[in-house]
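Help needed: design a sequence for this.
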């Protein structure tokens, strides 16, 4: 297995990071994927959220998962493997997690014209780290899942 070989023969200062993209078709399986990589000895996993690329709602909903539905699976992974694996939950704003897990959020750290701040963003303690939510995502699912 190539991943095992990389881990066995890598220099001590070399880190192998696994990237998993959460979609509507795979997010329920993410804990199994993480377990697989944890069992191999992976120490860093980025789990990114697939975002819509256009306004075609029917097709996008087949692929793009609701962040609030994915978040419990991410929290579960962190609870089980957070001591041994460093996670980044990429493109998930803090407001999609319960308060005690908001530190898991890793929104894109750059301004992006595809992002929009919603009304409560002005009061959010993470407003300096987050530039809002993808506009096409908001068109797809709305704002109700985001809370501070």
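Sure. Designed sequence:
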């Amino acid at each position: 297995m190539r991943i095992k070989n990389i881990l066995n023969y890598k220099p001590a200062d070399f880190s192998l990071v696994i990237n998993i993209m959460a979609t509507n078709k795979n997010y329920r399986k993410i804990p199994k994927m993480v377990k697989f990589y944890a069992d191999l000895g992976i120490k860093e996993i980025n789990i990114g959220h697939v975002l819509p690329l256009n306004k075609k709602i029917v097709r996008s909903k087949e692929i793009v998962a609701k962040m609030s539905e994915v978040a419990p699976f991410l929290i579960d992974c962190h609870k089980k493997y957070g001591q041994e694996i460093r996670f980044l939950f990429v493109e998930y704003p803090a407001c999609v997690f319960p308060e005690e897990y908001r530190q898991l959020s890793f929104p894109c750290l750059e301004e992006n014209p595809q992002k929009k701040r919603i009304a409560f963003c002005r009061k959010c303690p993470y407003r300096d780290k987050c530039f809002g939510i993808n506009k096409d995502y908001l068109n797809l699912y709305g704002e109700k899942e985001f809370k501070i």
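The chain has a mean pLDDT of 89.
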